[in-house]
What we know:
By secondary structure, this protein is α/β, with parallel strands linked by helices. Helices cover 41% and strands 16% of the residues. The strands form 2 sheets. Strands 1, 4, 5, 6, 7 and 8 form a 6-stranded mixed β-sheet that branches. Helix 4 (69-78) packs across helix 5, helix 4 packs across helix 6 and helix 7 (112-126) packs parallel to helix 11.
Amino acid sequence: MQSSFSALFFREKVTRTQKFLADMEEILPWHLLLTPLRDWKTADTGRKGFSAETMLRMWLLQNWYGLSDELTEERVYEGMSFQRFMGIDLGQPIPDATTLCLFRQWMVDHGVQEQLFHAVNGFLEERGLLVKKGTLEDATVIETAKSRKNGKKSYNDEEAGMTKKGNRWFRGYKLHTGTDAHLPIIHTAKVTPANTHDGSQFDALLHGKEEAVFADKAYYSEERKSMLRKSGKFCGILDRAHRGKPLTNRQQQRNRQKSRVRSFVEHPYNIIKNRFHVSKTRYVGLTKNAAFFVGLCMLHNMYVARRHLLPRGCHV
């Protein structure tokens, strides 16, 4: 039997995709997200352009589901839930992959991702979800995807850096984050080549209002610990053993206690890499990847906060 178009609107089961998009539709501060896009303007020639809100919604779908430009366009054509979220009715034109690519590049050129990140954090702070009493610092490496050239796989991103973790070398970029100790909400994000030391971004990840700072052994230094204590902040940086000077039992016990709090900082990386499907970089160059990662941090914050912004029992 062939189903009619009207039958699509009378399905009894609500899918997880529909529920998630409905939840995000309700909690996203659209007035704040659209403000940085007020200067978006499509070409004066050719077919009629798409509004900033339509393009923003398509960009959100792409990042939530880890899609390429072409696959995003296909999913919008095929999926009623995607069309409904974008506000597109049957028969209306749909932005193609090239339009989405141009919109994303315009966002990079105008620093829109950074503006969205700060706007969302201000929104969450007003609602008491971003407390800023403690900062958890850490960094994660996102590897550069290899391209196939002359039948061989090779890297084509000259701005990426090389770093070694364990016995394996990685080429890519490093996302440094300062995460709130109350909820795993990222309040500060910096992106560098992967060969940048974690501790180089220590001061840049502090907002100045925290009462405690937690970080792993890569951030350890006596000067840093002394600076935190003099400023009245609790130092939660793990102690590090030196050659010929192992950690005492008391230091090991303190490290275990601090690690229980510090491990909270790993939650955002799990969501970005596994929920948003970002195992490798998608673009070439520090500027594009930095904008991409900062945008993901903004989406992560709203993803985490949705459980507290929605009525109890209304999230998935």
